[in-house]
Amino acid sequence: MPQHITQITVRSLPPLPQDGVSVLPDWTQPAVRKPVVQPWAENSRRFAVGVIDDSATTGWFGPVSESVAMIVGDEVAPAMIGLEVPAWRAFTDIRPLGRHRSGPHARLAVSAVELALWDLRSRTANATVENLLGGRVRTTVPAYATALGIDIDHPLAPDIASWLAGAGFWGQKWALPGHDRGEPPQVDARRLERLREAVGDEARLCVDACGRWTADYGREMLPVLAAHHVTWVEEPGAVSHGDLAGFGLVHACGEHDYDPAEQVRTLTRGGVQVWQPDPTWNGGLSQCLRMVDLATTLGIPCFPHGSGLSAALHLAGVTPAGAVPAVEYHLTLEPLRQAVHTVPLVPESGGFVLIDQLGLSARYRFDENSGGAGYAA
Fold this sequence. Notes:
Blueprint: E1 5-13, H1 41-44, E2 46-53, E3 58-65, H2 66-80, H3 104-125, H4 129-132, E4 140-146, H5 157-166, E5 172-175, H6 185-199, E6 205-208, H7 215-227, E7 233-234, H8 241-246, E8 251-253, H9 260-268, E9 274-275, H10 285-297, H11 309-317, E10 327-330, H12 334-338, E11 351-353, E12 372-376
Parallel strand pairs: 4-5, 4-10, 5-6, 6-7, 7-8, 8-9
Antiparallel strand pairs: 1-2, 1-12, 2-3, 4-11
Helix pairs in contact: 2-3, 5-6, 6-7, 9-10
């Protein structure tokens, strides 16, 4: 007899802590910016979404912000209660009820319920998420290190870059802050030169423009990026595909393409060579799998964005290495995200060994001083 969703609930999680299990050596700490976390609502008031079936088993996913939790209760729960739990392909097209059914917060709410469902399915079926998706195709997944929480101007930054290059990570990604600080591009050029000298010619060095470069700033940076063999330029702002291609540079994006139609347009319009889906933002695990399949057909490798590490690892585990070469690991932020779990995910030798465990992730550390809010039919 198929199980059905009978209730969707929300429970409070503790605020994001100020420390976690860091993979960085102690000597790097003077270069780690404090605080490393922006004072966003999703960092101070955090919640987990629970999906309950008719056997009273609950699957969980979190953290989400209070605004996303409210959308779950008001608009997503009514659309999902009563649906069959095992029919995971039916959940790729779920839309919230109401007038505003698309956009970032709506997709985050759908993603949270979809991922909680995977946790529920795994536990009730006594099978791993990978087995429910057809089986694991590899046992290890490399990670690339995101160094956005490290002061690139600190004297230790080149040493940290060198350490990352030797620690087994697939590559490393840095932000160049010159544009935001109103500095001329030559200042960022010197920063990039210091990093390249530290890591050598063979290490993969990526740059994240965070979507803020102007066209003029980017054009001045392009020859510098090409000269230092940057592996990809992520979210280059107003810099066009054509300008990047003119210097042989790879365009990476995808985490902010929330709705399915946006994702298809980005992948098929040309000009994108690296796709960065996020199962916690872009509609859940099954939707991201569909987009990875499309990207693979188009010859575009996928590097899942780091907001949902556990979901990204499940995505990679059922996908060949050529399709998903590595997942993102944020060196300073991910240890704080993982503190919400009873067993945090910590990379070893620059990657992760996939283990057989029930559920989407380890259990959560709930805020025991607050109860939950339930939404039922």
